[in-house]
Amino acid sequence: MIDERAREPLMQLRISANFAFEFDQPTDALLQFEAAAIPEQTIHSARTQLSETEYMARVPAQDSIGERIWLRADGRCEVAYEAVAEPHRLRSGIASLAQLAAHRLPGETIEYLLDSRYCPASRFQPFVDAEFSGTSGGARIEAIRSWIAQTLAYAPGSSDAGTDAVATFIARRGICRDFAHLLVTFARASAIPARYVACFAPGVTPQDFHAVAEVFLPDPSQPDGGAWQLVDATGMADATDIVKIGVGRDAADVSFLTSFGPNRFLSSEIAVEQV
User: Fold this and answer.
1) N or C terminus: fewer CB in 10 A for the chain?
2) Helix axes 176-189, 137-151, angle to 10 degrees
3) Is the distance from CB of 77 to CB of 118 less than 8 angstroms?
4) Calpha distance 181→179 (Å, rounded)
């Protein structure tokens, strides 16, 4: 049963995403940019327009959250997407949630405990044990979020597609992608499953595709159960305002454009506003 007292006021968001890229020869590409049709958010309307391509097909995305689009194209490709979405997830006080013992975790969460391309969690186990000693579960996540917010500077242009959590930790600066990678890394190093979430959210400055983390903690409404909880280390988005695009181990799993050959990225314009 849903506790209606815990439900946040509903907000409809108008989303638009327009971007363009170019290939010099026939090339395969994988796109993921549409708001996911999942129980925690309603897509009231959506329209996607793509340039004519040699091939296009839709396939399920990671954890069946959203869809990816396969393309085979040559020359200039333009993408135009518009949607009205309404997130309606319940909000839990993360800091009060306990931690599920690793051996009690469901099988589908295990991959989110392991190292991935941008999140080498095992390298940070000594650091998190020392820095966040005496905390666990949601209190540990809140301590991690606070440490990142106080330690990292949000600096557009300070990182690139090769920047991982180690580089961000050393540089002490980054963008939303880097903040999310570091939170995911610290959570996994603390034996808390964590995944990377690509999303849309109002209030993001500069407005762009946004990235947050999601951690698996006990579900207060289900004894012995667990649930994914959204956390934005940048502090720009609230969990109740976020519209998910997709999830993955890190940014490599849920990039809005993955090209299997050289490409030139030409332009991008994202807008998210309350209706």
Assistant:
1) N
2) 140
3) no
4) 6
User: From the centroid of its chain, how far is CA 273?
Assistant: 19
What would the mean pLDDT of 189-213 be, rounded to a whole number? Answer: 96
Give residue 89's pLDDT band: very low, low, confident or very high (50, 70, 90): confident
146: Cα separation from own chain's centroid: 18
Cβ 99 vs Cβ 226: under 8 Å: no
Pick from 132, 128, 237: which is nearest to 179 by CA?
237
The CA distance from 53 to 20, in Å, is 13
Length of the chain: 275
Q: Among 6-15, 21-30, 124-133, 206-215, which is the least confidently predicted range?
A: 6-15
Do the beta carbons of residue 149 and residue 186 sit within 8 Å? no
Mean pLDDT for the stretch of residues 247-252? 98
**Residue range 91-109, pLDDT digits in tens:** 768 999 999 999 999 999 9
